[in-house]
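batch job 7 of whatever, protein = Isoprenyl transferase
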Amino acid sequence: MFQRLRALFGKAPATPLQTPDTDNIPQHIAIIMDGNGRWAKSRGLPRMAGHHSGMKAVKRITMAADRLGVKYLTLYAFSTENWKRPKAEVEFLMKLPQEFLAIELNELIEKNVQVRMMGYKEALPSHTLDAVEEAVRQTANNTGLVLNFALNYGSRKEMIEAVRQIGEAVQTGALNPQDIDESHMAGRLLSAGMPDPDLLIRTSGELRLSNFMLWQLAYSEMWFTDVYWPEFTDEHFYNAVREYQRRARRYGGV
Ligand code: FPP
């Protein structure tokens, strides 16, 4: 049938986007945006072109998450290990938040999006930090989607810092070691105050966590795709959410 239509009209008929069930939208989606470099290489372009195109995918998927009614979207934009990349690439990546916000902040404000940053501020260049902090400040009272950029973020460092703070509280007598429970860790992580991700998406075919939200992802559903981040579309995003909706979350129960 499709072959006959294709022969008649020259191309495949467009299939409508399969939108997820609006009743069971994940509250928090975290994404490891991977494959910018390979996407660029596959097109004979420099790696930076891949990152730039990845920035456009950030806009696309932010809007898709907003439309679906996702409450938190956490995007892994730069890890504590990414400093090992060539200097020119690090510099380019550090300019992207600024460029993204210069173009998109007004629309994010219009859409009631709240921008947050999760990561270590110390090492960030001031032009990057200033742009992000300005967006955080301007959107602080917004009540819609929380767009949380993991920027200079590393989960092991985050957990070490939390353990250090707990150790200090024990040392001063403010905390009894017998009373330590999950809330003492969770409350000292950079994600404190946010629910754990319900769904983790990683693009580009890699099947690992790369030091991303190791504590918080303990019971998250995971969805991996071979698609490179710059070509990740609304349709892929919806497919991930629809797959999430088919899963039974048991949290160790039956
Ligand atoms: C990993 O893929 C990706 C990154 C280290 C950077 C991700 C950054 C963006 C998608 C843009 C961020 C935009 C904003 C607005 C903060 P890779 O480039 O290492 O890909 P590869 O594994 O194919 O080389």
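notes: Helices lie at 2-9, 36-42, 47-68, 87-110, 126-139, 155-171, 182-186, 234-246.
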